Predict the 3D structure of the following.
Amino acid sequence: MQKKSRTNLIVVANGASEPLAHKVADLLDCSFQAMEKKKFTDGEVYHAFPRDITGKEMVIIAATPDDSALLELIDLIDGCHHYMAHSVNVVIPYLGYSTMEQAKPGIQEIPKGITRTRQIFRARPHFAAFVDLHSEAVLNAHGGEIHTLHLQTDALIVEKIRSLHIDDYVLVSPDYGRSKWVARLAGQLGVAHTAADKDRYAMDKTMVGQVASVVEGKTAIICDDMIRTGGSIIQTSQRCRDAGATDVILFATHLVLAGESRKRLQESGIKKIIGADTFPGRKSDDLLDIYSVAPLLARAISKQLRIRD
């Protein structure tokens, strides 16, 4: 086996992100170390680093799709400090609760996008990067002592769309909130874009009004940061067809696909959904076309380590 060249750099991951962490480690030409884990009868979880990490540059790849994944990330950060790693660099491909970045007026709800991110920052990583955040507000959940970075997948998305070799297509934003981002992608691709008229009337319910006729006779590629339940994006795809689109493709970085959303999307006539490997367990199949953010993460980590040097 060929010896790795970056002997002072170690990549670890929580259980949610081990496959992606393997890819990142390969691109960084360093060692991926799987954590030693076991669960006791009473529910407590044991973690151990498989080798000495004292003085090492540690990289933790950890999506936080649920509470246990978040707690595991915090345990890994604290563990790196306990064993005196030289630096602790965290990359969070998917941030859970990211849509809850602010509390609604008059309701005493907890804005968990902020409070959960603050818990990560309180563990004191030296560097924390996030991929395609729903809102950059979460980056401000610390006092300025941590270097944070918002990694945007624009270049990967543009490359992926070009690889589809579609002759005539339009980019569609599912709402006006994402329209600037979609316009930026459209500008790089040299195609037209439009936005759906969407109104939210409950916590997880939306109504999509109409889509401009610019989609008529073209393939509509609906672009968003995530597909969670799929309700609004199904409505948007139908409005695109109503406006004359010949085909509809969905494109979202984070494919949460909660509950029966995959089934509902297929039943609505969607035949292709393109997304990244940021959310755990997503693999290419007859519906999903998955690309990897590993090159983006590896470049960001390499740059951060060079800056620190």
Q: What stands out?
A: DSSP finds eight helices and 16 strands in the chain. Confidence is low (pLDDT under 50) at residues 199-209. The longest helix spans residues 67-82.
